[in-house]
Amino acid sequence: MENFDRKEYLSIGEFAKASGISRKNLIYYDSIGLFTPDIVLDNGYRYYYYRKLYTVNMIWTLKEIGMTLNEIKEFTDKRTPATMIDLFTKQKKTIESEIEKLNQIKDMMDMQVAMAQLASNIEVGSIGIEYREKEAIFLGKNTYRSNSEKNTLSKMVTKFYQDAASKGYECAFPWGIHIDANHFKDEGFDDASQFYYCVPTSNMYKPEGLYAVGYTYGDFKDRADFYNQMFTFIKEQGYKVDRDIYEDYLLNEISTRIPEDYILRISMKVVKS
To answer: Where is the HTH merR-type domain (predicted)?
Structure first.
């Protein structure tokens, strides 16, 4: 087919530049019968009509959403309005699920960054009284540790992660521990304690109100002395703890390698004595 209107067609080089698909890939697509040129001359030169740009763009789009070249070829070989509607409807659900997952990852990153930035602006060792708005959390089940079943910390954390994932929280959101002050023990961790994630939205919250807030270094096993300092401070200010205690890790395993460098924020809900 030597006699054709050359100006109406694109050479493979021109088509590759216009479509963003490499010449090598265009030749490969032709070899597997996925995407063929409109004209192939005796000398092997390939030419594409402009309408092919739309077709190859659709192939690229389907490839981007995870379809294999074989799956795309199967669709293009048998495409009809009905098969297109069916494919796009199914793929739309997959895309929406991926978007939801990526949005959750973005939210997690935003919250971890906010926590780390807060850690750089506080004075470790300080204690104060402040009003706090309600904060969304995913609160896990109580970490019951009865005499008949001594759960290790690793087992309890694992159960929390599994429970959170089953509820749709699969990312490593900033985490903490809720303690019921009515069941508080010297180590600050007992059968009434619950792990939680700080999350963007939830039907569970840390309640708004007045809190004694303090900041200290270290893992939760090393903060007993700081708790005593906070209790003394609260009493001296004419307050008492009103049940809820929250421990948040502003710096944690994600942001620092050494547990001694963790920064823990302890918030105790208080009322006037």
So the answer is: 9-78
Residue 105 structure tokens: 């990852």
27 vs 25: CA distance, rounded Å: 5
Q: What is the pLDDT of residues 34-50, one digit of tens each?
A: 999 999 998 889 999 99
Q: Which two tokens stand for residue 231?
A: 């209790």
Write the DSSP string, 206-250: EPPEEEEEEEEES-GGG-HHHHHHHHHHHHHTTEEEEEEEEEEEE
pLDDT at residue 156 in the model: 82
Please state, in angstroms and rounded to a whole number, the distance separating the CA atoms of residues 156 and 164.
Answer: 12
Q: What is the pLDDT of residues 5-27, one digit of tens each?
A: 888 899 999 999 999 999 999 99
pTM beyond 0.85: the answer is: no
| Statement to judge: residues 153 and 225 lie in one domain | yes
Are both 152 and 225 inside the same structural domain?
A: yes
